Amino acid sequence: MSESEHRVLIVGNGGREHALAVKIAASKRVTHVYVAPGNAGTALMDAVTNIALAADDIDGLRDFATDNAITLTVVGPEAPLAAGIVDVFTQAGLACFGPGRDAAQLEASKAFSKDFLARHAIPTADYAVFTDYSEAEAHIRRVGAPIVVKADGLAAGKGVYLAASVDEALDAARDMLQDNAFGDSGARIVVETFLSGEELSFIALVDGEHILPLASSQDHKAAFDGDTGPNTGGMGAYSPAPVMTDAVRERVMAEVIRPTVAGMAADGCAFTGFLYAGLMIDDDGGARVLEFNVRLGDPETQPILMRLKSDLIDLIEAALEKRLDQVEARWSDQAALGVVMAAGGYPGPYDKDDIITGLDAATAEGTQVFHAGTRLAEDDSVRTSGGRVLCVCALGDNVADAQARAYAGVDKIKWRDAMYRRDIGYRAINRDK
């Protein structure tokens, strides 16, 4: 595969996939990029074509890749990975970057993930798994609050409740186990002890054995300023994360990442792809695993890829050829920060199809606007089509500088009831002060 030219298929339609399209289309080794199904951002790019195939239409995607001489497929979201897209593509002789179905259970089932961590003595919160509400209720009353209640399966980043009281925890458990709030994803729940500290996103390329860490990042999951309000898929992110000192990085690699990659291989489901560990860093620099994702994070991807100076195609090829130990990633010394602009009401009910204005003006401020929940209408207007609509990103000499530039771009963009946080990056900025 090395040094050949590529026709690349990117699976997904979010901000992560737009950022991947920008980075991959910039490679001199790529002749064309297809995105299935893509969004307005990818629709407006040169040398990029949106394909009207859903991310979970695995057979359709395989047939498209075969019929259109696709040489590399990069999978963005978790659902097709959990459904086995990599296995299907591999069986068809197609290069597809991501973990197979067995390895994707690290994200697809929180019970699988917690059992894996316990089995391999990787630090995480104490936990218990329930399918029966009365048993969960007894456990929650016994342990007390604060406590964390999670849907076992995939819930688009929304199946996690940080309960400050026993009643809140019981409500969350009841919503999932009795009221079916998340369908099959919530038919089994994981109840964890609450961890305090500072959250960190650690993402690495993995080839089954070797590990190539990406730049550090930190995201803001809560909907409102000061990290308050309901959990979301992420309201903004920045890179690098000052909490990731050299000492913390080495502990994370030694205590979490290397044992995870070795443990997956020992369990017979070696991991290839982007491995994301959501970590809680305590005051002593120790790391405990909050969650695993088996793909790039969103919105962390956007600021991370803005800082990546290496050709992403070279790195992905090295991972597919199991030679990640022979390459390195080069990074800009600048910081990058992205602010998510969401539809009013997110993560609850929200309206769609509002016209977005000011995108060109925002770009003129030196920002890069990554589309997520957008579509290109027949009249060529860009309209909202999801909860998280845009991620407005900028580079700067430090996080505070990148923050100021990103918000200058945000201020140019308008649609009815747009909402966003005003404090993305505040932890890093306070640390610098």
UniProtKB/TrEMBL annotation:
Which Enzyme Commission number(s) are on file for it? 6.3.4.13
Q: Which cofactor does it need?
A: Mn(2+); Mg(2+)
Would I find 4Fe-4S among this entry's keywords?
Answer: no
Q: Which UniProt keywords apply?
A: ATP-binding, Ligase, Nucleotide-binding, Purine biosynthesis
- What's the top EC group for this one? ligase
User: What does the record give as its pathway?
Assistant: Purine metabolism; IMP biosynthesis via de novo pathway; N(1)-(5-phospho-D-ribosyl)glycinamide from 5-phospho-alpha-D-ribose 1-diphosphate: step 2/2
List the Pfam families: GARS_A (PF01071), GARS_C (PF02843), GARS_N (PF02844)
Q: Which SMART domains match?
A: GARS_A (SM01209), GARS_C (SM01210)
Q: Which reaction does it catalyse?
A: 5-phospho-beta-D-ribosylamine + glycine + ATP = N(1)-(5-phospho-beta-D-ribosyl)glycinamide + ADP + phosphate + H(+)
Determine if Nucleotide-binding is one of this entry's keywords: yes
Annotated GO MF terms = phosphoribosylamine-glycine ligase activity
Domain ATP-grasp per the UniProt entry, residue ranges = 114-321
**Which family is this sequence assigned to?**
Belongs to the GARS family.
What name appears for this protein in its UniProt entry?
A: Phosphoribosylamine--glycine ligase
- Gene for this protein? purD
